[in-house]
Design a protein that fits this description.
The complex is a heterodimer of chains A (176) and B (354). Chain A is of the alpha/beta class and 176 residues long. Chain A is 39% helix and 22% strand. Chain A has six helices and six strands. Chain A has a six-stranded mixed β-sheet, sandwiched between helices. The longest helix of chain A is centred in the C-terminal third of the chain and has 15 residues. The longest helix of chain B is centred in the middle third of the chain and has 21 residues. Classes of the chains: A alpha/beta (176), B alpha/beta (354).
């Protein structure tokens, strides 16, 4: 297993949380994992991203330079990372917010209208979970059950409604 | 043992509390503010004290006071804040008191930037402040090592009655990795703090904490004694990790997170049949001179990789002492070198060595 993942979007879209979900799941399934956020003033309303490494071997550099998978939730990040994806890699993007042309023929483009699906579900802030569900399906990095288990650990016990909501959103993306 | 996914900053704070740190004096600065935030939440729950001081200078002098009273005390900051703490650290060293100072380094000089850097190496290992003195400087490269070395830092500080610096960079502070904490920590056997100014109970003479010695001969004697302690530390406390150095033509020397990037570059070069090894100093002071000197008898070249304009490379050169070529690759100002950049430098050196 060798996933070098970038998750990028606007601050507030939940890209860091989506990265945490993948990282926790990797830890709970005994993979080697690291999570590295972009930090600083660019997070306030600007773009935010995180690097997630999921491997069988101990992780060297935690900084993803050329992702095997890029999960992209806004246009500026699409432009920034499209060229960086490794040949044969995947770019999974929110087609509600991104209408960029595909400029490469050596990577796979996976479009999912995550923001629209989130609105349709009545869960406006769940686009990050929907697109994460799609990523899990496309890559096979985890099973749906493994991710459900993680959601249980991440959602505070005082907010059981969030547990159900997140699971539904992940399933929505997974089955899209 | 339960695995937790934690940021470096939080893992260090948790480890410090578990190591018995009861006083933390902070002042916010990116990229280490999570240390203070974590301490402010947890310290009251363990009967300790978190205080946000009015400045870095105040914070380090509060550490001075707590250390004098024999309590495990800590402060943390990032580069510009450490410069402000420098005076206080010199006083603590001059008063032979133990404490732990964390520096999550960012780009400099001046206010510099907020992204990861290693440009405080000289400051930490050679000239943090005025006077003849040293800190033990520990440089973790993973979140688990952040935990392990935080325990170690408090023990070393207490054993030798001197300040210990933990040094990381913004990347290490901000990133998350799985960590475990020991159920029960068995630290070093430490002497009782009979020197602490914690009240005589009318049973002993009062203790004095002081760094002012007007009489030159008296001060010289004290400093010379302190340097005997430093010599002992040089013999006993050096920590490093090596990989693939036995047959290496090119030996990388890197510490902290950059050692991980160097490791990725080393693996790529090994896959291409180039014999590359890695020496990772864990203690920056005392510097692992001996292993570098020994390795230099066989290796053709050394490559120091740093997030600076080249600071540790000077210690590598001193240790190699002309036995091999010493090269440098670095990025600075908050720019993180990629494994490919380091790999390309390795190719350049290996090609030149043929």
């Amino acid at each position: 297993m060798n996933h070098e993942i970038i998750i990028a979007g606007f601050g507030g879209q939940g890209v860091l949380f989506a990265g945490k979900l993948l990282s926790y799941t990797a830890m709970l399934t005994n993979k080697e994992v690291s999570w590295l956020p972009s930090y600083g003033p660019e997070m306030r309303g600007g773009t935010a991203n995180c690097s997630v490494m999921i491997k069988d071997e101990p992780i060297g550099s935690p900084l993803v330079v050329n992702p095997t998978e890029a999960i992209i939730l806004n246009k500026p990040s699409f432009t920034k990372f499209e060229d960086k994806v490794v040949s044969g890699g995947k770019i999974i993007y929110d087609s509600t917010l991104i209408d960029c042309e595909h400029s490469r023929d050596d990577i796979e483009y996976v479009a999912i209208p995550a923001t629209q699906l989130a609105y349709d579900m009545g869960a406006n802030k769940s686009a990050n979970m929907i697109i994460t569900g799609k990523m899990i399906k496309e890559t096979g990095v985890f099973t749906l059950d493994e991710v459900y288990e993680t959601v249980k650990k991440l959602v505070p016990a005082s907010k059981p409604e969030l547990l159900e909501l997140n699971r539904k959103a992940i399933a929505e993306g997974y089955n899209y | 043992m339960e695995k937790l996914l934690m940021k470096g900053n939080e893992a260090i704070a948790e480890a410090a509390i578990r190591a018995g740190c009861l006083r933390f004096y902070g002042y916010p600065i990116t990229p280490q503010t999570e240390v203070s935030a974590y301490m402010s939440k947890k310290m009251p729950k363990v009967g300790g004290l978190f205080m946000q001081a009015e400045s870095e200078i105040a914070a380090i002098n509060m550490v001075y006071g707590s250390a004098a009273a024999g309590v495990r005390a800590m402060t943390s900051s990032s580069s510009p804040g450490i410069s402000l703490k420098a005076e206080g650290i010199s006083y603590i060293a001059g008063a032979d008191l133990p404490c732990v100072v964390l520096n999550i380094v960012r780009g400099g000089p001046g206010l510099g930037g907020i992204q990861p850097a290693q440009s405080d190496y000289f400051q930490a290992t050679k000239g943090l402040a005025h006077g003849d003195f040293q800190l033990v400087v520990l440089a973790p490269s993973s979140i688990q090592e952040c935990v392990d070395l935080t325990y170690e830092a408090f023990d070393i500080a207490d054993q030798y009655r001197m300040p210990v610096m933990l040094i990381g960079d913004g990347m290490l502070g901000q990133m998350m990795e799985p960590v475990t904490f020991p159920e029960e920590y068995k630290g070093r056997d430490l002497p009782e703090k009979t020197w602490a100014t914690n009240g005589t109970q009318m049973k002993r003479k009062h203790n004095v904490v002081n760094s002012l010695y007007i009489e030159p001969n008296e001060l010289e004697k004290l400093v010379v004694e302190r340097y005997k302690k430093y010599d002992y530390i040089k013999e006993t406390e050096v920590k490093y990790e090596t990989e693939n150095i036995k047959d290496a033509d090119v030996v990388l020397v890197a510490y902290g997170t950059i050692a991980r990037i160097a490791k990725s570059a080393m693996q790529k070069a090994r896959n291409e049949g180039i014999k590359v090894g890695l020496i990772r100093p864990i203690t920056l002071w005392p510097f692992p001179e001996k292993i570098i000197s020994e390795t230099a008898k066989k290796a053709k070249s050394f490559l120091a990789v740093e997030m600076s304009m080249g600071q540790m490379v000077e210690d590598v050169r001193l240790a190699v002492n002309g036995q091999a070529d010493v090269h440098f690759y670095g990025r600075t100002g908050g720019v993180i070198p990629t494994p490919d950049e380091v790999y390309n430098k390795i190719i350049e050196i290996a090609g030149g060595a043929k």
